[in-house]
Amino acid sequence: xxxxxxLLKESLRDGKFVIKTNTTLPxxxxxxxYKTLMNVERAFREIKNFLDVGPMYHWNEKRVRGHIFIxxxxxxxxxEMQVMYRRAWDxxxxxxxxxxxxxERAIRQKDLEDRHYTGEWxxxxxxxxxxxxxEFLGKExxxxxxxxxxxxxxxxxxxxxxxxxxxxxxDIKAEAK
Length: 177
What we know:
Layout: H1 4-11, H2 27-49, H3 61-97, H4 102-114, H5 119-128, E1 132-136, E2 139-143, H6 149-157, E3 166-171, H7 172-176
Antiparallel strand pairs: 1-2, 2-3
Helix pairs in contact: 2-3, 3-4, 3-5
């Protein structure tokens, strides 16, 4: 049977949580700190799952600290890209909102919504974009394929220039002499 009294009492707490603390911080700051902690935990879950950096087996403290540093740095890189992209995207949203023709504005808004990417998506797209190391006529170089249309657009929004199609690395014949 259902305990209606208990269910009613519990429904009063729906959407709320209780935090017990031993600090003298104001309640608002305690809640903000707690939510920040949840973001940190989410970040470490994301680091382990999305960035594919684990498991790693280290046997000394220096290597463990180095590994954690690299993981956090990678996460911060992804988050910074997301923030930069979001700022550029928000500017485009404001430009679309200034379009006076309702039909044109609706079309542009739909297009913009289709191009809203997360930092995770950007990193995944960057991972798919590989260069080819090659040697030709005694010279070593990198051949950079064109970025996908969507990735090129994102890099433009992030103000990151596309690399040259070929990047000269070294003259092998000159080194041999």
